[in-house]
Structure formats: C-alpha cells, structure tokens
C-alpha cells in the first residue's frame, strides 16, 4: 500500500473513532506518520509508562552520562557527581601520575560526568568539541588515576563514547537528544509512537520496538551494540555502530575486534585485558549463546518488582546461576567451594584492575591454572583460581594439582593448595 494511502486510512480511522478533533491534531498526526522517526527523550515516555520509567531511573543506564549543570537529587544518585568533582584538587596527591604532567580540569570546565558506580570520567569541551579529560576517579579504591593522557584530546567523545553513553546521537551535528541510555536506545525513536492515539484499527505498538517480543538472539544484539568491542562499518574511526537501531542485524553496522572475547596468551601478551564492552563478545563464545540463554535471561532492564542488585541481575551473586543449574551438587570439582561460588570460578575478575570487580568474564568457561602454567605465568594468562585474593600468591603447580584431585572421587589429603599440614590418619 502506498504511504499516502496508508496515512489517509489511518487518519480517517482515528477521526471515525472520535480521536481526531481539530485540524492541528490531524496535521500533527499526519506529520508524525509521514516523516522520519525521531527521538523524543525518556521524559515523553514517562507520560504513559510511569512505572517503567521509574524502574529505569533505578538502573545504571539512566546515569551513564549526567549533565553537571543539572545535577540530580543526591538522594537517588548513588555517587553524587558534584561531590566527586569537588574532591578533584583535594585528592590531587593521590594521583598515580604527577599532576603537573597531565591536564586536570577546573570545576567550571566539566560539562558532563560519565559513570557513577565503578569509576567516573569527566567530559570537557575543547575547540567546540567534547573530550574525556585524562583523569578518572575509582569509586572503589578512592584513587585518582590518569586516563589516556597521551592522546585524550585526539579522541572526540562523540566518536568514541557518545553513541553508547547518550541517546539520539547525531554525528554530523555533534549533538544528542538525551544523556544516558534512555528508553529509545533499546526501543528505537518514538516520535510516531508518542503522537499516535491508540485505536482498534491501528496498532500503535507497531510504531515502537519491544525487545521482549524479539527472539533471544536479536534481542541480545541490542545489548551487543554497546557491550561489544569493535568499530563502525559506516565510519571506520567511530567506536560504536553508527545507524544501528533496535531490531536490526548488528553485523551490518559493527565489526567486532578480532581479539575481543578471546582468551589466549597472545591476547594477554598484547595487554588486551580490559574487558570493558566485551560482555557480548564473551557471551557469543559461550554455551549460553548456543542454548538461547541471552543477556535478559540474567539481567533486568526494568526493575519492576525486583530489588536492585549491583550488576542488575535478577538474582544476587551465584543465586542467579543456581536458579537454572539446580543439578550442580557439591561433588568432585564443585565440592571445592561448599558455598557454591559459581561466579568466582566461571566468571572470574580478570580485568586489569581486578580489585574493582566491575568487569567479569562472560564466556562462563573455567580458566584453569594449568593454562597459566603452560603460558608461563598469570601475567601472560590469567586464571580463575589466581584471581581470588586468597590464592593470588599460591604456586600454580599447587593449584593445578588440587584442581585435578578435586575432579576425582578419591580427592587426596592434604589440601596442598592451602598449605595445610597433613591430618593424622587412623
């Protein structure tokens, strides 16, 4: 059916239902339906979807980018950006790089803060463009560290970060509609959806994407657009999938880094250990992906009826795993930790800053200490056992021997991995 005919039928149907009264309303509907979809911002969504809006406000997505000139109420902000910025000079002595060697922005130079729960970075303006200042705050260790101090002013924020930390980004104009991962980042532009009245003859739901109605693989690609590591296929120097919209095939807009999601000595020898933005790449290597267990099987986007958790998971800690893996009893290798520490072994912290724990491996495969031993050490190949603070100094040979023994029925004593004395036998 031709677009003009379709528009005419839609408006006629609305009028028949008494939903179009004056000429201005008719013109507004006609313009919305005929023109391209545009972004309207999450505040528009709140009008009809208040519960979902409120639950979204409790997630980290809503705070990936915050305008410091319009700081949110400190009562609902986990880490108040104003307080952290106020400590910028006060904590200067904690910098791991001499302050005189890097640019530290003044209070009035910071336009936006990026991140709140794990670490925070500061977006400043230079020559009409936005950049991330070469300094960041670690909210867990309370340390200030440098961030790409050598080339920070050669990496425009909108090209490197904008597409995933803001919604409705326009590269040509260098602008965005909304700071943070808003409703339309996952549901698509909503200009038609917000203006069209709901009528029996026209399904308003068709004007918006509902990820819960998509197959698991396509739904996961929405997450992968930002939680992946690669380059845009449209503009090669941009680090996010330009032009991608929810429901489309991500592969046409994004080329993953060939090393992303891989665990080999070659990868780690190149210091490619920062697994930020690689959860999707990891997941694709997992049996979860093969079996249809996707991102939203474990993580919530809208927190309706659920207590908020640190990683936005439906369950807390390993309880999330045990909700499905009910048959994993404390036998053999699973008897090592009687408290069922699934995450500690299958999602180890192998990020270059393991003490923060903000990036966990998503391949769900055990990284054995044997792999580290063969590679020549944990610095060349990390493993699940050595990533635990208790075992960070335990010899790899002991870890390998203990793990092999744990896989057998007759696990021998003593537990050499703990360096316990051999118990007396009777």
Looking at this protein, list some descriptive labels:
disordered C terminus, alpha+beta, globular, about 425 residues, 17 helices, two-stranded antiparallel sheet, five-stranded antiparallel sheet
Task: Tell me about this structure.
This protein is an alpha+beta fold. Among the domains are: 65-180, no CATH class; 257-418, no CATH class. It has 17 helices and nine strands. Helix 1 (3-16) runs antiparallel to helix 2 (23-34) and helix 16 runs antiparallel to helix 17. The longest helix has 14 residues, at 3-16. It is globular and about 80 Å long. The model is unreliable at 12-21, 72-79 and 420-426 (pLDDT under 50).
Task: Give me the secondary-structure topology.
Layout: H1 3-16, H2 23-34, H3 42-46, H4 50-57, E1 66-67, H5 81-86, E2 110-114, E3 119-126, E4 129-138, E5 143-146, H6 157-165, E6 166-167, E7 178-179, H7 183-187, H8 191-195, H9 216-224, E8 230-232, E9 254-256, H10 265-269, H11 279-284, H12 287-291, H13 295-298, H14 319-322, H15 342-346, H16 369-375, H17 396-406
Antiparallel strand pairs: 1-2, 2-3, 3-4, 4-5, 6-7, 8-9
Helix pairs in contact: 1-2, 16-17
